[in-house]
């Protein structure tokens, strides 16, 4: 799996499948593997590009401030290196914030947009929580850190199966490319400082906004604001899903994505 240099850093990426290109942008503290359950649903029909944002996984982790605009520039540069003039863009959470900036900065590169569990701007509670997560990194052990975060990501139904949570924590602890203190900190500040509230009206590509009804981290109201202010946006609320819908509601999310993308072939 290759790396390319963009904007002075190395970006780690992989490409699978054939067909029209679909670019996946992961969220806070997540590298490209967060899309693993969704990937099989897409690669049978599309060429899928996954990559690690700056500050995570096997990409560079510069110890300097990040912004979602800067990460959108990283993404655009990756598309250029891969020789892709345009792609379907899918972003989850912080990845959705990056995707918004990509559509605003480089509208010609975005055929259409799918924003999962994302937001234009955090409210006070959300920003306080993300700030705390950024500050806690490195101050407590990884197991406790995961136990603090996961209740915000998954639903009661998911927690009703204890072995599911245990498996996720075990995977996170043993993952060889776990998030670093500085990567978590700088990504957290990029999320907090993101604000496209007044600019998303300038996103003119077809857009699907999707969110779990039980998402307590980026609640439905955040997605409603996106859908109301992006001119060609439609909103889909997943009845039984939380912020971790890519893991907890994979089949439903996959079908919604495929249905939406099929409109633009």
From TrEMBL:
This is Alpha/beta hydrolase. Transmembrane segments: none annotated. Pfam families: Abhydrolase_1. It comes from Nostoc piscinale CENA21. One of its GO terms (molecular function) is triacylglycerol lipase activity. InterPro entries: AB_hydrolase (IPR050471), AB_hydrolase_1 (IPR000073), AB_hydrolase_fold (IPR029058), Epox_hydrolase-like (IPR000639). One of its GO terms (biological process) is glycerolipid catabolic process. Keywords: Hydrolase. The keyword Mitochondrion does not apply. Residues 21-248 form the AB hydrolase-1 domain.
């Amino acid at each position: 799996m290759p790396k390319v240099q963009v904007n002075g850093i190395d970006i780690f990426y992989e490409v699978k499948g054939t067909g029209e290109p679909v670019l996946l942008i992961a969220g806070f503290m997540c590298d490209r593997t967060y899309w693993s359950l969704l990937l099989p649903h897409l690669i049978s029909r599309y060429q899928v590009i996954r990559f690690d944002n700056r500050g995570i996984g096997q990409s560079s982790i510069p110890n300097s401030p990040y912004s979602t605009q800067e990460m959108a520039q990283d993404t655009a540069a990756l598309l250029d290196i891969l020789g892709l003039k345009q792609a379907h863009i899918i972003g989850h959470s912080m990845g959705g914030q990056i995707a918004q900036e990509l559509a605003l900065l480089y509208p010609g590169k975005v055929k259409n947009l799918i924003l999962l569990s994302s937001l234009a701007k955090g409210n006070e509670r959300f920003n306080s929580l993300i700030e705390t997560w950024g500050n806690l990194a490195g101050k407590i052990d990884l197991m406790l850190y995961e136990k603090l975060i996961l209740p915000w990501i998954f639903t009661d139904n998911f927690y009703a199966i204890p072995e599911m949570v245990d498996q996720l924590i075990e995977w996170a602890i043993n993952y060889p490319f776990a998030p670093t203190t500085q990567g978590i900190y700088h990504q957290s500040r990029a999320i907090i400082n993101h604000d496209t509230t007044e600019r998303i009206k300038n996103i003119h590509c077809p857009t699907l906004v999707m969110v779990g009804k039980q998402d307590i981290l980026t609640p439905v109201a955040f997605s409603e604001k996106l859908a109301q202010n992006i001119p060609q946006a439609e909103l889909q609320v997943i009845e039984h899903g939380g912020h971790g819908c890519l893991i907890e509601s994979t089949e439903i999310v996959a079908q919604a994505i495929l249905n939406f993308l099929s409109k633009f072939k």
